[in-house]
Amino acid sequence: MIPGIGAFTQDTLWCFSQVKGTMETGTTEADIISTVEFNHTGELLATGDKGGRVVIFQREQESKNQVHRRGEYNVYSTFQSHEPEFDYLKSLEIEEKINKIRWLPQQNAAYFLLSTNDKTVKLWKVSERDKRPEGYNLKDEEGRLRDPATITTLRVPVLRPMDLMVEATPRRVFANAHTYHINSISVNSDYETYMSADDLRINLWNFEITNQSFNIVDIKPANMEELTEVITAAEFHPHHCNTFVYSSSKGTIRLCDMRASALCDRHTKFFEEPEDPSNRSFFSEIISSISDVKFSHSGRYIMTRDYLTVKVWDLNMENRPIETYQVHDYLRSKLCSLYENDCIFDKFECVWNGSDSVIMTGSYNNFFRMFDRNTKRDVTLEASRENSKPRAILKPRKVCVGGKRRKDEISVDSLDFSKKILHTAWHPSENIIAVAATNNLYIFQDKVN
Amino acid sequence: MSAEVPEAASAEEQKEMEDKVTSPEKAEEAKLKARYPHLGQKPGGSDFLRKRLQKGQKYFDSGDYNMAKAKMKNKQLPTAAPDKTEVTGDHIPTPQDLPQRKPSLVTSKLAG
User: Which chain A residue has its CA at the smallest distance from B47's CA?
Assistant: First the structure.
């Protein structure tokens, strides 16, 4: 449902719920959020940042006293996932920035997630401890060894309750399998394997095996001078464990079937929208580069994000998308400056809501956009501290393209291009969204009547 | 004969002007080419992509350095803070010259 201001519309009204992070104006680079992901139930929300840290928030149980307020997200666990490294052999600095976090479905009391930087994927186990053994024979209460000569009786240690402690431990480290920079990881629906994709290759891993992985896609040309495109994102099909897609810097998507061959260099399906050659410009290829690809929950569609649009493709139709949504077409007349300040290379992500009826993606000036696929209506909202009163309804924003600017509109030239919303997440079943605005995490919910 | 040439030229100019009017993208392209006349025709292509693949590289050989220097003349790349302390160019860097990369010892402010 799309937000609107009218009291009598059926549209969703989005309200501010929480904001995490500091209000200080000078941002430490390490605090920049680089990925946001809900787990499969929406109970947990994980963020990764440029400093290699992961913070996990947990939704508190809704209390009977506050029926009108949905559960809030509070810090559950935080840990240092990756550290900066230097590859002396290649003179390569390896950033600790967390590129992606993907949750595994919960199979026991512990939570598992994959986090990756440019080179190494790690499997983390997050578990709770609320009991501890007390009454050891050989150790005293502080853990110091007792002098055996003073021990005259024998007792059985008992488990006693303690304050909840949440521990995160690295269970697997999947390293040294990527020459280029990892841009995506995706857990397979078989829950036994996952894939990691870099600019030129995609590898398939088994969760239990860290010293081997299968290479399933390799687009590196024999002669690097012939390089024309790179892999930009990849994802497994949500239900078919043999199927995955990957997108390219040339705006194409390939669907591959692992049953067809061990090395999926030959795609099963190839999605590309035909381009009018007379419209081609210097910028065409750059802005067609796909920065994110996501399967719908149903598995019937894929959504792609390029610099100016979001497109929905039907898996059964390769020759063009079934829907195209303009995110910020007014930037078309700013491409020259956006190329000069490198913003044209910004990688925006896109997400589906739980029912696949609405899609969301970010823009500049801390704006983010939602498109309702059924009503064809769209809205622009802003993540800002000014709209941060609890349960304050977000007012739709509008960018003025030219001519007379209305009171509430903002002109294209006033947009702040340093405030980019690249990462957003949508709760798997409810209208709760998490929006990362540089170093702040905003959580918005729909209005509960 | 001589009367035909000016006509042909103006027809082309007209098409170019039309392009600029109908396509903001082409107008932006013209702006870019005016600022950087030596910019290559293909923005994609192997040079561009290979540079992308080499992100994070601190040192390069002399051939790569000269190519980068030539490109720098055309396009002023925005330098992020780490680049300013980058040790490259005339002298051979030593491990002491490398800017220290410390892991984040501070807890994330999101958890505060």
Answer: A225
Phi and psi, residue B67, nearest 5°: -65, -45
d(CA A68, CA A448): 6
- Mutate which of B25, B38, B76, B85 to test chain A, going by most A C-beta atoms within 10 A? B25
Is 0.90 topped by the overall pTM? no
DSSP H helices in B36-106: 45-53, 62-74, 81-84
- B28 CB-near residues (< 8 Å, 6+ apart): A281, A283, A332, A333, A334, A335, A336
Q: Cβ neighbours of residue B33 under 8 Å, at least 6 residues apart? A: A282, B39
ipTM over 0.90 threshold: no
* B39: three-class secondary structure by DSSP: coil
Residue A105 reports pLDDT greater than 50: yes
Say what the pLDDT of residue B14 is: 61
Q: Please count the CA atoms within 13 angstroms of the CA of A199 that sit on its side-chain side.
A: 21
How many Cβ atoms from other residues are within 10 Å of residue A242's Cβ?
16
pLDDT tens, position by position, A230-251: 999 999 999 999 999 999 999 9
Which chain B residue has the Cα nearest residue A200? B53
User: Does residue A102 contact residue A186 with C-beta atoms inside 8 Å?
Assistant: yes
Mean pLDDT for chain A overall: 92
Residue A301 is predicted with a pLDDT of 98
Say whether pLDDT at A91 is over 80: no
CB A31 to CB B109 under 8 A? yes
* Nearest CB partner across the interface for A282, out of B32, B46, B103: B32
In angstroms, rounded to a whole number, what is the distance separating the alpha carbons of residues A394 and A401? 22
Residue B34 at interface with chain A, using a CB cutoff of 8 Å: no
pLDDT level of residue A375 (50, 70, 90 thresholds): very high
- Listed in order, strand segments (DSSP E) in A300-384 are 301-305, 309-314, 323-326, 350-352, 358-362, 367-372, 378-382
Residues whose CB is less than 8 angstroms from the CB of residue A370 and which lie 6 or more positions away in sequence, other chains included: A2, A3, A358, A359, A360, A378, A379, A381
Question: B55 in contact with A at a CB cutoff of 8 Å?
Answer: yes
Q: Report CA-CA distances (Å) from B107 to A25, A49, A341, B99, B110.
A: 18, 11, 31, 22, 8
DSSP assigned state of B9: H
- Closest-CA residue of A relative to B59 is A91
How does pLDDT run across B38-97, given as a tens digit for each residue? 776 665 566 677 777 777 665 555 555 556 556 655 554 444 333 444 555 555 656 555
Question: For residue A42, what is the DSSP state?
Answer: S
Q: Which of A52, A90, A335 sits opposite B104 (nearest CB)?
A: A52
Helices B4-22 and B24-35, interaxial angle, to 10°? 110
Q: What element of type H or E holds A121?
A: strand A121-134
* B31 chain-A contacts, CB cut-off 8 A: 336
B49 inside 8 A of chain A by CB: yes
pLDDT tens-digit series, residues A31-61: 999 999 999 999 999 999 999 999 999 999 8
Residues of A with Cβ-Cβ distance to B67 under 8 angstroms: none
Enter the tokens of residue A218: 């390799």
